[in-house]
Each structure stands twice: as C-alpha cells, then as structure tokens.
Please model this.
Amino acid sequence: MTNLSRTIMAAGLAVAAVGAQAQGIGAACGCPDVSARTQVLMSTLVDGSQNLLNPNTTLSCNNLYILDTRVYVNDGQDLFVEPGTVVKANSNPGAAFAIIVARGGQIWANGSESCPIIMTAAADPLDGSYSVQNRGQWGSLIVLGRAYTNKRTSDADATATATNGVGTIEGLAAGDSRHLYGMPVGQEMNDDNSGVLRYVSLRHGGQIIGANNEINGLTLGGVGRGTTIDHIEVISNLDDAYEFFGGTVNAKYLVAMHCDDDYIDWDQGYNGKIQFFYGVQGPDNSGGANNQGDNGIEADGDDAATNAANGGIASNPTVYNATFIARTQTVAQADEAIEATERTEGTIVNSVFTRFRSGLNLAGATGTNATAKWEGGLLNVKNCTFIDCSNPLRINGVNTTSGAAFDKFTLTDGNTILASGLIDYTYAMTQPGNVLTDRVNPVPAAGAAASTLNAPVDGFFTGAKYRGAFQPGAEPWTAGWTLAAQIGLDAAAVAGCTGDLNRDGQINAADFTLFVNAFGGNCF
Model:
C-alpha cells in the first residue's frame, strides 16, 4: 500500500487539476472548450424513419453531440468522429440509445492521447466527479461485422436466426437486419474492416433492454481483423466491459474499470488477439447495486455444446500482458480470474490476476470437455501470476492444490502463486465525487523479474518480456488520456514525485539502489 497521507494529497491535487481542465477536452487539437461548443441533437442527423445516419457523417469537436435516439451506421455508410469530440447520451430505459455500426458500415473514430474521443452519460460534467457507481445510463457502442461465428440455428436462445453463422446481437431486438452479425457458413469475411477505434473512452453505459439483457461497454459481433481497435477505455458499464461474439478482430491497449459484469468475455468462436489489457473492479464490496465486477475473463466456446456437431469451431483467442485487479476475494460475491467453460480453447500468457477467489476455474455444463482441452494443450494459461488468490486452480467445482493437474499448472505451465507483492492492488474510494484515499499502482517496480516467454513477432503483438500490462518502472500507457489517470486512481499514471525512480509511490532504498547502479552512465 502506498503512503496514505501522500496518496490523499496527490489524489486531491489530481481531482482539482481535472476540474480545471474538464472543459478543455481536445484543446491540443484546436477544439473549443466543451462549454462553448454548439449543442447538436443526433436525431437531427438521421433519417427519422430508419434512424440511419446521413452518408459520410462527420462528428466535429466544434459541437457537443447529444445522443437522443438510436443511431445506425448502415451497410455502405461511414461515420467519422474527429479527435476531441464529446458525445453525451440521454437515458432511455427499455430502448436504450446507442451507436450501432451494422454489417458493412464503418466508424472512423481516430482519437489521440492528447485528444481522446469521449462518449458518456448526459449528466457527466466531465470533471472526474461523476460517480463511477453511475452505470447503465445509456446503451454504448455496438460494432457488427461479417467475420466467422459459430452461431447455429440449433442454439436454444433468443439470438438464434434461421441461418447458420448469423446471429442477432445481444441487447437488440430480433427481426431487424441491422442487428445481425456474422455471415452464412462459407461466406465469412475474416479480414472484414469495420473501421478504426483509437483513443475512445466509453463511460456509464450498458442500459437495460430487458431481463438479463444489457448492452456491453464495447460489443463486437463478428468483427473482422481488418478493423483497428487500440487505446479504448470502458468505465462503469452495467454489463461486460468488452464482449467478443465470434469474429477475428484484434485489440490492443484496453482499459476497463468499475463495470458490473465480466471484463473480457469471448464466445461463439472468437479467434482474435488481445495485448495490454488493464482492468480494475470497483472497491465497493458491500453487496447489492454498488458491487462492481464479475470474472476477469469469461472464456466460452459457444452457447450450445451441440455446435461442434454442427460444424462450429471453438473460440481460440490469444491474450498477452493483461493485469486484472479484483475488488476482493474474501466476500461471497468474489469472482474468478479466468472462467473457462463450454469448449473454449485459447492462450493466456504473461498476465497478472489479483484478489480473485479462484484463478483458473474450469467449469460449466461442459466442464469435463474444458478440462480435457486444458490438459490436452488446447487451452493454455502460461507464465501468469496469481496474487492473493485463495484457490489458484479449480476444476469442476473442486479446489485443486496438489497432484498432476496442479503440477501442470505451476511447474509445466510456469504459473506463479504469490500471497502479495509485484504490484500495489489495494485502493479505496469514497462517494460522492470519486474521492481516492488509496490508489492502486499496477506498474511493477523497475527491476522486477522478467518473464521467460515473449509475445510472438507477427505484426500485431509487441515484444514484452514481462508479466502484466505495464513495463516495470516505466510510465504506463494509461497516462494522459484515461479517466483513471484524471481522477488519480492509478498512482503510476499520475506524475510521481522527484526521486521515486521505480514509481512505487515511495522514495526509499530501492530507488537509491537504482541510482547507484546507473551512476556514471548516460542517457543517449
């Protein structure tokens, strides 16, 4: 834990600074103060009968956009969003307002570190004070594509359609072709391009559509690998932060905080790549509506165990360098770091999971099948670190702490179990106002032991021979553009004090050792 008095002071300074610059979002790109922008109702930009955007619509940072309807980017249409643009969404429970990119449509939201694109609730003053407990205020962003899914007509759920390979996306009603994702078997377009999402912050979404039916922070249905997704933040979503319904899309530099369900959820044959993921559950563990979070990763192969017989392939994504911080593993509502069920395959490497009740949990209706895939090497969890996790390995409802399976988990696959250490994963926040009294620091100190494995060099992954989302001792990639950095939640993303060379929030002998070992060197 960081020094409390210093943390309180620094957090207070951080919040004050945010309040002063809240209206200056996008100033580095020449955007006017948010308070001076012309308000534009997005209902004026669409065809009222179909809610289709006019072709090649551009959202300019000169305006403040009010999402007062559902907006569709239809097949053949483009939505351009300038850096520094802000969209505020009105609440509409039961028929949530959302931005929906249909199959064949494209969104070009290409923000930057100094000029992120923000989509949030109408009541958010953008000064860091809007409570992270405000979830489900609007529908958020849905992107649908034409890549592979293992969706089948035999699936016994409301999203099944009459065509194998095509489904109706969760959170939207059946019967509208704009709500479909995937393509008929044999017609999939795995290189499909739905556009660019870069430096986009999605806040306070996930509004309820019906019973057990909410929209995810970023919903990706059958999205192809031609799409660019990097530096995305999901804050306080009522459902999952990111859910991949099939598809082949790759994603990099993702943040998820204070969401109410899983942080990464894949299903229906997702076969993409993810690197550098940072997730923090809310600190409130009192139960009820304020509890924040479920599993770190919910890894599913499909919604029906019969899909294999019908020609559907399992999910098989690859994840490197993730850091997940759970609220606590001591309460009844505690969750699983990796919940692997229903024919999932895949690879999870060099990742850090803290305070979850269970580490790798092989469970579900097809738990035996999932166990076989894990033992057979089709589901690989390697060189990961599980910290303050009482049940690192759980198989079909049984905690496993010895024997051949446990030896595979720890010795063969190189997973490490720690009681504490590596990162500072404790924090506290009071409401109202998101006031931090203890901040996390997800960046390991400089000199932390390197991983024995490295991400493959394949044009997407970045070489990162360390565990977790952040290079030890370095400034994190969350600094400068995330809400977490703005409100001071993340100690490493806030400017450290002089002398704190390893950025652990303290000036002590460890910093002196780093200085002595570097003395006489040069900086070029």
